[in-house]
Each structure stands twice: as structure tokens, then as C-alpha cells.
Amino acid sequence: MPDQNVFSQLHLETFGKSGIRRVMPGEFIATDAKGRAVMIASVEKNKLVYVLSRDSDAKVTISSPLEAHKPMTLVHSLVGLDVGYDNPMFAALETDYSEAKMSTDGQVVGAEKALVYYQLDLGLNHVVRKATEVVDPTANLLFIVPGGKDGPSGVLVCALESITYVQFDQPTCRVPIPRRKGPTENPERRRMVTAGVMHRMRGAFFFLLQTEDGDLFKVTIEMARTSAGLLTRDVACLTIKYFDTIPVSSSLCILRSGFLFLGAESGDHAIYQFERLGERDNELQFNSDDFSDNLAVPCDPVFFFPRPALNLKLAHSLDSMHPLFDCNVTNLTDGDAPQIYTLSGSGARSSFRTLKHGMPVGQTVESQVPGQPVAVWTTKTSADSEYDTYMILSFQDSTLILSIGEQVEEVVDSGFLTHVPTLAVQLIGTDLVVQVHSRGLRSMMGDVKTENDTVMQGEVLEWATPQHRSIVAAATNERQVVIALNSGELVYFEFDEATGTLSEYSGDRPQMDGTVTALSMGSVPEGRKRSSFLAVGCDDATVRILSLDLESILVDRSIQALTAAPSSLAIIPMVDSSSGGVALYVHIGLDSGVHLRTVIDQVTGDLDDTRSRFLGPKPVRLCPITVGEQECILALSSRPWIGYAHPETKSFTLTPLDCPPIECVTMFRSEELPEGIVAVSPDQILRLSYIEDLSTNIQQDSIPLLHTGREIVQHPTAPIFFAICSDPNTLGPESRKQLLDEAKKSHDATNGNRVETNGDHEMNGDRRVNGRKGTKGSKSADPDSEMSDDADTKDVEEDSEMDEDGDRGTQVLPPDVFGHPKANKHWASQICVIDPLDQKKVIHTVDLDNNEAAVSVAIIPLAEQDDEAFLMVGTSKDTDVCGYMHLYRINDDMSLEFIHKTRVAAPPRAIRAFHGRALVGIGPDLFIYDAGMKQMLRKAQALNAVPHEIMGITTQGSRVVCADRQESVSYVIYDHDEGRLVPFADDSLPRWCTTTPAMLDYETVTGGDRFGNMWAVRCPTTASDEADEEGGAAHMIYGKKYLHGAKHRLDCVMHFHVNDIPMAVHKTSLVAGGREVILWAGLEGTIGLLIPFAGREEVDFFQDVENRMRKEAPSLTGRDHLAYRGYYVPVKGVIDGDLCERFARLDRGAKERVSAGMDRSVRDMEKRISEMRTRVAF
Amino acid sequence: MVFYDLVLMLHEKLTHEKADKLRAQQQLEQLKARHVGTGDGDTTKFEFASNVLRDTYASMIGHPSLLRYTALAMGEPREKVRNMLIEKMAAPLVKPATEEKPTVQEDD
């Protein structure tokens, strides 16, 4: 199994079929340390225990479940205790809510939290509730402590500001979680542990526990010693000390090799290397001996100073787009395909990302070459050497020879002809180097070492073309050479081992009908003497396959007609998913810029399974290369592409390279670059580059943002984006700066007067000083302070060696790791102007004050202002107390100039440009605003356009579609004559819209909801026509309502569960000339596509594939596919492409079964499935 | 066991009509205990609403993307929100003073 690198299902035990519910076990799972039992618990009441045993084949068998239910209890955390080989024990953190009540101020009273031990008696085969121990009522998380030989067993109970060691029938010990100390930190705030990991090493163990701020604490348990100094099995104390700060994680894992994996809660995941284990540093350590373990007595708060990491070093990070808030698809670079722009990450780890279809290319050297080469080769001079000796550049009328050594320099005595253009260079046999030029063939034997150590220059042989003939194309490999003359004749040479030279085939020279434009011969297969096929491309738009087998040399085997003349050919063996092994591919590049890939039948020479793709407007040139010892093909058109077998599915994939355009390219092997490529661009620059791996075909560029990005809009003309960012419970930049100024001031004062020690001052003296005394010493900010925007810069001060506590107090730590200072009910919000192309950074920001948070943004071209585009931002004050609409003018340098703001009753969550004015959704009402001198002026309204709150608006013509928070979408018509907005159609199903809906056509919109569904609804044609009639709006207003809703109902045309909350949906096309698709972006970083079917036949085919795949590729976790995709509403009008594409990953037998059932070949199936994707996307 | 039950039921049916009613009542109680949240004619508005809220919170805890969505909106780490939701499940509503005229105050 390991070589396949996939999970396989060993056993599947069903214990609940009714989905994820309150009493359905599955929220918590814990195993016994010795792997003898597993407990599965639900949030409320139910717990199941399975006994695991192994049969004679060492396969795990599982018992029928033992129940340990207790009604009216809630579980917070569950662990399996490490009890060695005693009966397995589980510990659950439970709340008994039978007596619980909520007091009028919202506090829950009477719910007692306890640690409950469950013991599985293996002899009697039943579970008992062995004991309960009351713990801290704020406890939230348990960690097991190693038992048996490794430790004292028991659990760590983590609660708000305390960590307690609890062991059955033993005294407990407790340490507080230190609070952060700093000028911007609230000294009253208590933290809790949100993630952690226990690590064992050579008889010792420790815990790394992370708080909600991201601070890691090292927790150790010290054992008591006897008077003789021997270790006992009793716990002496618990200690805690600050370790390092890393981003907030959802899970941590320490690898044996000394690395820490961080599954980040937002943004990129990371691997850190341990440099130290927090030993012998001067961090203060807190000991449980100093704190009472009495739950009724809260621990005295203790403090630490956060500092840049000393123990952990970032080793690697993994791109993650979770959480993704908004996405836009547009083509800013004028390239062939549009790019996807997203807002992802949260807090100070937010970023604006550009996603491009392309493969990253590494670059080492670049240099200018004289003139524009038309072709480039590299060759070695002997079959024994590993690395290339010469690089040959061919120009229009000459050839340049460069030698590859420590430096690349021109050589004159190489033996190559330099005054003619070269068509091919090849090492043949062991040391025969052949240069094919327009006038003939020059073969150079290797240098021979004679007896007395003098080097004898090798012999040079020339083969000249017949009179009035020149060579137009050539194909070579290690043993064979074929050249095409301008008369259409082919001349074939083969290596003669006896003489060590090339000898011409003596039979007839075959005559082609047209001029030969391209030739190719595969390399000689291992153990064979020749390649058996020759591909000949002629200008009559055909490719012929000729046999080169001894008994049928140069005999026509097959012919393929093309849509244009072939410009380049390459026969290479490549990994093939259909055959399950390696197949011989013929790559054909056409003058029209199309690349074709066909498979050649190794016996008959027939061509089969042609797949084509348009690469660019220029003729395609091909060059075989290897990446990671895998055969690949470079196809050069207006931009370079690489064709390769996808590392996972093994299907042929074409991806553009992310590098400047290439004119000619070849493989290049040297000591530093075993698999390099040398490429010459059209601007005469030669580059040595390499392709690292083939695993990714999407490139991400990231621009950091200071706060969680919520929405983006694009400037109507310039390649600029405007993003609104906001963070709840975060100190705004103003307050941050003020607090820092104060700290700085008082710090300076202390430094200036060192002798006088001020006991009250937080920066001085004992670090464990009570927090109430410090921090907010003086309220007045120093107006002359030189403190700049340090709070906003992400730069770290390099001096991590801090001699005095004073520096620690005023140092500003990078918020992307340490987070922004928290403050309840404060909002930090800003508007960013982002330049994703040239400067690749945020070029301007506008901070919002007044505790406002931006909730919506739009570009509004105002008709009254000569269609000048303004930026309008909707804000929410004090978390939805009221709303404001800000209007900004966009200056020429893209900075924003505030014009005015208008107070409205509720936050405007949706703004949209509409007929030269702004369409704004405020609460359930829809308004049209125009800009006045002092504020926005209301022009039209539709009160209660939707039942709850408008979350998004989209328009087409006079039609407006509003998305409600809970109740799907409503269609509204704008009556120009009367200036009225009239809702006329709504939906019959509640849909909690999270996206601004996208119009698919005038009647249809698509969107996503909070429960992870994508849907499309359509307005009945009669209703649509009626609304657009003359006076239709009036008719709608006074017409009869239907079932307390609008007059008409929408029909659902599509519904599909995508298992991620869609945050943005667009109708767009992703490839040049491709059809339009629906692109959606999900909160967890998914980018998905819904591709429209072209016809009934296609639907039938995919429906059949989907049906068969449900049987052949069931989910690893046993989830029924139909139930999954129809989780809330049965699937309608969508076929699961993800499931269909898993066809490529099936094993050979399953593929055959599916294809045979559908009466098709495996190749044909794979072609149809992959074309569905490549036609419109990548 | 089943056979015994059946005999007992038959016996009861034949002898005590009232006991039959009682037994049905007991069976219903059992079912209600097994299927948490099952109501009957006497369920108060408070009990019903508490159950709905408990189900809602449990669903938010159990569906990862919903929990992430909520945590992001609150600007808190997921673990903290998860714990907070479980704690709210203990008593999601303020119990009205008089059962006859229940006034449901939604907490969220």
C-alpha cells in the first residue's frame, strides 16, 4: 500500500445513519493508549465503546458496541488514558445539565463540569462510569499524560487561565496560564488553551499548549524524589513557561525528526524546526507549588513578555487559502487567460492572492546572445559522460558553438561548421557527433588517445546533399538519422557499428507529396537497435507514420490529416493512464498554434486517441525534456507550455510555464543542473532554468493585508482593486498608536531616570507584578512623540536579545504571528487600494474610525457627475447599531478622497451601481441613492423587498435580484416612469444566501448558501414578461399577493451540495475562447466550476459515468454519494464531475468494467472526461 | 425476552385495560428517553425552543464549515467558539416564570 500513497479502508462499522446530529456519536473519538479499545462520543448523551482485537492474520477486528450513555450530559473533550495494560480507561469532560438554568443576564448556572472516568472491563466486557471528579467550570480541553513506564498517567485539564493536572485518586496541582504583557495588551484578559501537543522523548515528556493568541507554553510535570534522590511515581509539581509564539493553530503535531507541524486556523500551514526546547533561557517559569489547587480560589494572574521566536524556526510553509472571503476573475495582464483574485486569511494573516494557471520555473543564469537564434542544442561528446559538453546556437545563416564548463564560452576548434545554419546536432553511438546543416551531414569522430599520450584529432566525414538540393528537416536519435530534402525526398542513415560511422540506407528514397515541414523519430528503446517509427509532417497538412523496422524500412504505416500544416513533431514514450503503463505519444504542433497528442499503436503504427488544445496564436514548436526522470514535452507558442503525465491521475496535462516567452529551447545537463533547460527568449536573452516539480499547476502570489479582507471590487479601468477589511474585537490603529506612545513616553522617562525605581511602573522590576497596577499609567498622549506607524509595519526589530525588560515592553511585534491586540467590542477596519501587478502591494489605505466596520463596497459611476466613478463603502457602527454610507472620490494616483458619509438605520450590506446611481440594501429594504453635496439622497425605495436582510444585489437592465440572509432571492423590477422598485417574484425554499447572486441569463440567477449548497433559480417566463410590460410594475404593486409572498414564485433549476460555504460566484470564462462557466469560491479555499452541458447526449454519458462510479469508487469513509450531494435538498440538474474524474484514478480492472458496461474503450472514456475540463478550464 | 414481553402484554391486555394504557405510556416514555428531543402534547414552548436551539448548536459544532463560518464572524478561534456553543447547550434559554404564558427570548 505505501507505494500507492493512498488510504485504504480496513474496516467500516456503521453506527449512525441520520447525519451529524446532537446525539449521533462521532464528534469525539478517543483510543486506548495500547490500541485495545476506542470510544466514540456525541456532543450529548451517547457514547459507544468498541473493543478492538486482532485475529490470527493480525487484522483488526471490532466488537459490537458497548453503550455508555447518560442522558442530560454534554461532552466537551474526550481522551483515552494511558494506563499501561490495566483495563482501558477513558476520561471525558462532561457537563450535567439536568439542573442547569439560564439566569436573566445570560449566565448558565447549576451546570456542573466534571471529569468522568469510564472504564472498560475487558474480562466482563462492559463499561462502567468509574468515578467523577469536579473540575474548573470553565474547563474546555483535555490532554493525556503518559502512563506506565513513561510517566504518572492522568490528564491535564485546560480551563480559562488555568491548567490542572488531575489523576484518579491523587491530589491535583494547578498552574495559571500567563497573560501577555505589553503596552497594547489588556491586563485583565484571561486566555484559554485552544490547541496543544504532548511529546515523549527518551523517558521524558512535555506539552506544548497554545492559547488563543498563538502563544505556545511548555508545560512539564516534575516527579517527586525520595530522600535518597530517587524518582518516585508521585507527581511533585506542574510547571509552565513561555516557549514561542506561532500563528493560531487548529492542530499541532511534533514529528520525530524534530519538526513541528502547524495546521493553521487561517492562512498557510507551516512546519517549524526545533532549534531549542526552551531550556536554559531566561524565561520565567511558574510552578504549581506557588498556586493553590483549590478550584474556588482563582489563581493570581502571572505575566510574560511575548518575543520573537527563539526555539522554533520556520522550515517550510504550505499555501492555504482558507478562509476565503471574496474572489474576482478578470484578466489584468492582457495574457491569454484571466487570473483569479481572492481575499483569504483572517486577522493579520490576511492576504490578497493572485491565482494563475501556470507552473513555476526556477532560474539560475541569464545572459545576452548576439543575434536571434532560431534553434539551440546541447550535446555531450561521449556516451560515457553524464553532462553536456557543447551548446550549439543556430542563427539564420550561421552557428555558434559554446563549450560548457565552469564558464560557458565560445569555442572555435570544436570541429562544427559555423558558417551554415544547423538543423540538428546529435551524439551517435559512443562518440560520433553529427551536425546536420542545410548543405549536408558532418560527422565527427571522438578524439583518440594514442599510445604516447598525444591526442589525435578524430576523423571528420562529410555527406553532401545532391546538387540543387538542401536539407529542410532532420530527425535524429542515438543510432539513426533521417533528413528531408527540399525535393520531398527522405534520406535515412543508420549507425554502422563495424566502422563506427553512419551509413546511408541503400534502398529507394521515399518521395513525399508536399514539402516536409517536420520530422521526428523516437529515441531508441532500451535493448533495441532502432526506433521503429518515423513521423513525417508535410505542408499538405498531414502527418505520416513510416516504419523503420529492418524488414520494412520507410514503408507507410498510417496517415493523419490535420487542420493546418504541422510545424513540429515529437515521438516520445510517456506515462499513460489509459494503458496503465507507458505509451508512445506523437506530439504534433501545428502552424495554427494547436497542439495535438495522439497515441501510436506499437504494433501497427496506427494513430489513435487524438486530443487537441489551442496554445496560442503562434506556430507550435516542440522539445522533449525530462523532469524528475519523467518524460515531458515543452510546447512553445506565444507562451511556453509543458505537457506531462499528471503526478496523481497520470493523465496527460498541459500547463503553461510561468516564464518569459521562449523562442527556442533544449534540455541541458550539467553538474549543478542535472535536469536544466536552456531557453532563448525573443529578446535574445539566454536563460538557464529548471522545473522543480510537476505537482502544482496553480501559482499563488500573495499580498499581505492588515485585517480580514471582506470584499473586493475592481477599478473600472485601471488594474487596481479596492478591498474592505475589518476585524471584530480588535484594537483600532488609533488606540494602538496612542497606547504605544504612552508606553514609549513612560519608558523614556524611566530610562532617563534610572536610579529612581518606580514600583508602580510595569516596565520595571518584577515581571510578575499585578497587571492592575501597570499599563494605563498616563492617559494623555504626547503630541510631540516621534513614534511613527510602527504598529502597522510588519517589520520585526532584529535585536531579539533583549537586555532589559523595558525594551520588551515597547517593542512592536509582527502582527501576522502575534496577532493584533484584542479589545472587546472594538472594530478595526480599513479600505485598501491594492496594485496586484506592478508594485504588488497595498498602495493606499483609509482607516475607519468611530468604531465602524466596512461591510460592503462598490464602484458607482454617478450620472450626475459626468459618470465619474466613485467608491462607496457601507459600514456598520458598534456591531450593527446603525450604518453609514461613505462616498470616496478616486484620485488619479488611486488614493481615496473622503467626500461625505450618510447615516442610515441599519448597515448597508449590499451596494450596487444602477443606472448612474447607487442601489443599496439596508436591512430588508431596497433603496436607490444619488449623491448630494452633503450626503446621499434617497430617490426610490422598496420597503421589505426581502423578509430579513439584503445580503447581495445583482442587476440586469431594469431588473434587480436581491439575496436575503435567510429567504433565498427576490426579483424586483424598477419602474422608470414612477421611480418605483417593485418586488414581483420570490422563492419557496429558505436559502441562507452567502454570495451575491450571479445572473446566468435574464431570468436565472445562481448563488450559494450557508449550508454549503449551490443553486440556481429561474423566474417563470410569464412572470418575467409581465414584469417588463408597460405598466407592469403598477400591476405587480396592486396585484394579488400569493401565500403572503410576492405575486410569483421562482422555480429551482439546479441544486447541489458542495460541502463548502460558497462566498463568491461568477459567470465567467477561464480560457481564451472557452465557453462561459460558473466559478464559485468557498470559505475553506475551494475554487469550483460548474460547466454547462452542450447537449442531451453529453448529459446521458456523464450520468451513466456518475452512476457507475458510485459503485466503483465508493467514499473511503462509507458516505453514500447520493446522500452526500443531496445533504439538504436532493441533487437537481448537476452531475458530480469530481466523482467522474476519479475514473482516471481507478485501477485497470475497474476502468475496464466501467468502460465495458458503457460499451466504450477506456481511452475514449478518459478522453471525454478530461475534455470536459480542458475545454473550459485547466 | 421478547416472548416474555408478549406474554406479559397479552396477560395485561386480558386482565387490566388500565394497565395497558399505563404500559403504552411507559413505552412512550422510553422512546422519548432514547430519542432526545421528542415532544408530546404537553411540551411547553420553552422546552421546544430549547430543543431547537440545542439541535442548532450541535449542528454548528458538528459541521466544520459552519463552525468556521461562525468563528470567523466572531473573530475568535474555532476551539473557543466550539466550547462556547457546547456551554450554551446546557441552558440555551431563560426559563419563563410562568409555564402557561411562555415568553421565548432568543439568546443568539
From TrEMBL, chain A:
Alphabetical GO biological process terms: mRNA processing; RNA splicing
Keyword annotations of the record: mRNA processing, mRNA splicing, Nucleus, Spliceosome
Domain annotation RSE1/DDB1/CPSF1 first beta-propeller: ranges: 3-282
Annotated region described as Disordered, given as residue ranges: 742-820
UniProt GO molecular function: nucleic acid binding
Subcellular location: Nucleus
PANTHER family assigned to the protein according to its UniProt record, in alphabetical order: DNA REPAIR/RNA PROCESSING CPSF FAMILY (PTHR10644)
Family indicated by similarity: Belongs to the RSE1 family.
Name under which the protein is recorded: Putative nuclear mRNA splicing factor
Automatic annotation (TrEMBL), chain B:
One annotated Gene Ontology cellular component of this protein: U2 snRNP
PANTHER family: SPLICING FACTOR 3B SUBUNIT 5
GO-annotated biological processes: mRNA splicing, via spliceosome
Protein name as it appears in the record: SF3b10-domain-containing protein
Pfam families: SF3b10
Protein's organism: Aulographum hederae CBS 113979
